[in-house]
Amino acid sequence: MRRLIQGGRVIDPAAGIDRIADLAIADGRIVGLDMADFQPDERIDARGLSVIPGLVDLAARLREPGQEHKATVASECRAAAAGGITTVCAMPDTVPPIDSPADVRLVRQKGRNAHAARVAVIGALTQGLDGHHLTEMAALRDAGCVAVSNALHPLASPLILRRALEYAASLDLIVVVQPLERALMPEGCAHEGPVASRLGLPGIPVAAETAALGQILALVEQTGARVHFGRLSSAAGVRALQRAIADGLPVSGDVAAHQLFLTEMDVADFNALCHVLPPLRNSRDLEALRAGVADGTLCAICSDHQPHEDDAKLMPFPATEPGISSLETLLPLCLRLVDEGQLTLPEAIARVTCRPARALGLRAGSLAAGAAADVCVFDADAEWTLDVEQLHSRGRNTPFQGWALRGRVRHTLVRGEPVYQSSADSDPHA
Amino acid sequence: MNALPAPHRPGPLPTRMQLEDGRLRHLLTIEGLGRPLIEQILDNAESFAGMNDQGVKKLPLLRGKTVANLFFEASTRTRTTFELAAKRLSADVLSLNMNASATTKGETLLDTLRNLEAMQCDMFVVRHADSGAAHFIARHVAPHISVLNAGDGRHAHPTQALLDVFTIRRHKGELSKLRVAIVGDVLHSRVARSQIHALNTLATGEVRVIGPRTLLPAAVEQLGVQVYHNMEQGLKDVDVIIMLRLQKERMQGAFIPSEHEYFQRYGLDARRLALAHPEAIVMHPGPANRGVEIASEVADGPHSVILRQVTYGLSVRMAVMSMVMGVNPQVRA
């Protein structure tokens, strides 16, 4: 099938392109821009719309295998597509965890069967995420894992971490680490600060992040392993990463989109929808995270999507499960950073396309000729109000209910094939 | 592009959930109650105390009402005083030990509430190990049910704080002239948080907290207190000393090195009591660990009002129960 996406504002930060153009696609690949003699089988009218590489999301929970009551690979891949995401990195902390080649193949196959966003699997770093025994990382890589991670599960000791980094490095596998020292946050469920103190919520100090970062960075320096720090939450964390990058260590980092908009104050009415890990911190941290995104210290903005069934949040705050359903707010929140003057539009697009792809070595996030035709076409001016009932994700757990957002996905293509489309007329949010 | 409207923010703060048309609908926390309302509760408690003093032990104010004590966490003293207060007001009382009930069999908290609602209860008195549990329940109960927080996690224990300020008012009078010191494990104490809010709302002259940094919450000064790590300095010239219970399980958490050192640094004995105002009173929400946070000579001494607190607690809880049900001691049914 040959398709032509016509007349849109093509923004491809990887190639430095930002202009009105026609994007030609054939056999699932990008052919090029403004190809005069290209004869399409189908035309997509993108006048007044933006045409960008499909979004690459570095962290999402797809809940399969084992937690299908929360979501399925298929449901969340469709939600991702509705959010303009064409590659979604599945975290390994499913039940049971994704720690064997069979698990990896199963999740990838379910992803393919969904005919929506692609699934890039991040495999477990230790068996059963037990923190003690390394997984067969070579087999995981051969089965298609793009990286390994222990997600939020702690490692038994710094020695295990060292061995894990060394072994992963010998396979050229990137290790994704969510730096949070569990020993410093017994029962912790909210940022250790005035709000948690007032509400009597057990705190999670910033040091839980920085202590973990410090230890990991010391071992990165020792081992030379390639580490991506996922979901930083604090000003001190950004500073530590900035220094490490300046020192030439092979590290990168990302932030969850919600950390750029919410703070501990949003927890102030025991709002369980704002129960996340790492916790929402204070406004100074939020500003530092935004600055870190702007200066590139944080190369990527991810969804950190964690869909839950309603009951998971219908308990007193500390007993609720952390996480936000966030695939479909990733792009609008990034656009809001543009509206608020934090980033230019191409910079914002880069943080959810080429930069995350580069961080994990994924062949995605580009509209260069020959690249897979993973494309998002969106209306940057469409204003809508988030209504959880309209989400495609099974998870309705978002604190952004009722927020006025800008930017609606009109078409999502994976390998050149439409996996999601909506028109302004049919869009329930429009 | 036009600026987008301001982001949606969460609904009313929990402090506002408990008021309806200015009337007390639930009692979840002291925060946000306002001085007139707290003083009204204390005044009503005075009326009940007066009646109790005159030998009128039972009033028909809550006749026909059903109060359910839902204790998801063990407690004898608090549960008993709530139960007795409800009975003194002629309510029917259910006291349920929720640890041994359906929630341990997998039923959700909301399912449990729905079942209790179906039993036509009018008031839930809730104790729970999680901060925010009382708010959660208040947010989800049927409109005719009032929720009283009998202690949630580390968050709040409002009736205990009210009986404490009632005690202070009775024994020391005008709070604006007083220095009050709260000593010990503020970090884990729901009582201390509620006391601080109550004392500050009533414009107490000075509220101090005294304890090692391991037992004080982060940014505790933002609650409106002066912070002391030295007991001798903190007790100087105070009019009221509120000792907090040091939970023995804290010993395992490396919060303090030993009971011995804790008592040496923060225990209240006669020598330290002498640093306070000569007519200072000593309070304790109970149960007290003698020799750990307080010496027997002080707990049983002339400055102690510990047992009076227990008595006043009954009047305060009667006042709160009658107010959330829309009746007060002046209105006889």
Automatic annotation (TrEMBL), chain A:
Residues 338-420 form the Amidohydrolase domain. It comes from Acidihalobacter prosperus. It comes from the Bacteria. The keyword Zinc applies. Residues 51-234 form the Dihydroorotase catalytic domain. GO terms for molecular function: allantoinase activity; dihydroorotase activity; metal ion binding. InterPro entries: Amidohydro_3, DHOase, DHOase/Allantoinase_Hydrolase, DHOase_cat, Metal-dep_hydrolase_composite, Metal_Hydrolase. One of its GO terms (biological process) is purine nucleobase catabolic process. One of its GO terms (cellular component) is cytoplasm. This is Dihydroorotase. Pfam families: Amidohydro_3 (PF07969), DHOase (PF12890). Keywords: Pyrimidine biosynthesis, Zinc. NCBIfam families: PRK07627.1, pyrC_multi.
Automatic annotation (TrEMBL), chain B:
Gene3D superfamilies: Aspartate/ornithine carbamoyltransferase. It catalyses: carbamoyl phosphate + L-aspartate = N-carbamoyl-L-aspartate + phosphate + H(+). InterPro entries: Asp/Orn_carbamoyltranf_P-bd (IPR006132), Asp/Orn_carbamoylTrfase (IPR006130), Asp/Orn_carbamoylTrfase_sf (IPR036901), Asp_carbamoyltransf (IPR002082), Asp_carbamoyltransf_Asp/Orn-bd (IPR006131). It comes from the Bacteria. Signal peptide: none annotated. One of its GO terms (cellular component) is cytosol. Pfam families: OTCace (PF00185), OTCace_N (PF02729). One of its GO terms (molecular function) is amino acid binding. Residues 177-323 form the Aspartate/ornithine carbamoyltransferase Asp/Orn-binding domain. GO terms for biological process: 'de novo' pyrimidine nucleobase biosynthetic process; 'de novo' UMP biosynthetic process; amino acid metabolic process. Carbamoyl phosphate binds at residues 77-78, 127, 157, 160, 286-287. Its EC number is 2.1.3.2. Keywords: Pyrimidine biosynthesis, Transferase. Residues 25-169 form the Aspartate/ornithine carbamoyltransferase carbamoyl-P binding domain. Pathway: Pyrimidine metabolism; UMP biosynthesis via de novo pathway; (S)-dihydroorotate from bicarbonate: step 2/3. L-aspartate binds at residues 105, 190, 245. It is an enzyme of class 2 (transferase). Heterododecamer (2C3:3R2) of six catalytic PyrB chains organized as two trimers (C3), and six regulatory PyrI chains organized as three dimers (R2). Catalyzes the condensation of carbamoyl phosphate and aspartate to form carbamoyl aspartate and inorganic phosphate, the committed step in the de novo pyrimidine nucleotide biosynthesis pathway. HAMAP family: Asp_carb_tr. NCBIfam families: asp_carb_tr, PRK00856.1. Belongs to the aspartate/ornithine carbamoyltransferase superfamily. ATCase family. This is Aspartate carbamoyltransferase. It comes from Acidihalobacter prosperus.
